[in-house]
Amino acid sequence: MPELPEVETVVRTLRNHILHEKIHHVQVFWERTVYESETFIQDLTNQHIQDITRRGKYLIFTLDKGFMSVHLRMEGRFYMTPLDEAPKKHTHVVFYLKDQKLEFNDTRKFGRIKYCTEDPVILLTQLGLEPFDECLNPAYLRLKAKNRSIPIKTFLLDQSVIAGIGNIYADEICFLCHLSPLKKVKTLTLKQWQELIDNVRMVLSDAILAGGTTVRSYTSSLGVTGRFQNTLNVYGRASLACVSCTTPLKSIKIGQRTSVYCPACQKG
DNA sequence: AGATCTACCCGCACGC
DNA sequence: TGCGTGCGGGTAGATC
Prior knowledge:
- The protein has helices at residues 4-18, 37-44, 120-123, 138-145, 152-157, 167-176, 190-209; strands at 25-28, 49-55, 58-63, 67-71, 76-82, 91-96, 100-106, 112-116, 250-254, 257-261.
- By secondary structure, it is an alpha+beta fold.
- The chain has two domains: 4-123, MutM-like, N-terminal (N-terminal domain of MutM-like DNA repair proteins, Alpha-Beta Barrel), CATH 3.20.190.10; 138-261, Helicase, Ruva Protein, domain 3 (Orthogonal Bundle).
- Helix 6 crosses helix 7 (190-209).
- The protein binds a DNA duplex through helix 6.
């Protein structure tokens, strides 16, 4: 499910359910999901979940003696299930808590979980600014975009510039900015960067309020029954009529990722 | 020389 | 049955 609003939704849901709980036992069914799998289980056992936060698309669990970072990648998700219930299909890691268990479930096995003793905020310094960080301003983006010929779509997906935007919201942001996703970033004006920041924040905060976007229908998966898909303007609407001008939306590939936009509205 | 582009990889489900 | 696709991101090697 993984863009910032979906991760934020999962973090909020988990905070409401398992904060301060003790991890009594851990099971790993697919070794490659966890880093340092030899010590992962013993590292986590008997630690308490003191806090759960988000940085970009990463979830960060603060434990007694260290931190656990989780990246959901394409389809990673969490389930909270009764202790006596068998793990679901595609569950690769199980955390046994007091009265329930937390399952990390990932159909495509792309998600990764890592335990470290140092604050991963330091380890994640390669990530750019959070969208709602007040340091995010037109001057910052213009500097990052200086002399660069990459498309705005690619720039928005670059986690070292702004952390948390993925393929859905990048397309939506370009649409709201009336900018072609192919627009070269070095050509944007300060005014356009400000509009972009405004739209980044608007789209992401609206999506968080809606509980994120659920593209496929997942059954009872934790915190991903989003409703934002109902308000998408371009993502997934290739060849359908533009909501603004009825021109058929166009679909192209930018950096190996599908990009949908209105050739009439997004000429900037 | 450094920035950028392209292909490809990773497991798997789904639709055609 | 087979093929293309995907809410992510890393890498290697080619190319600008």
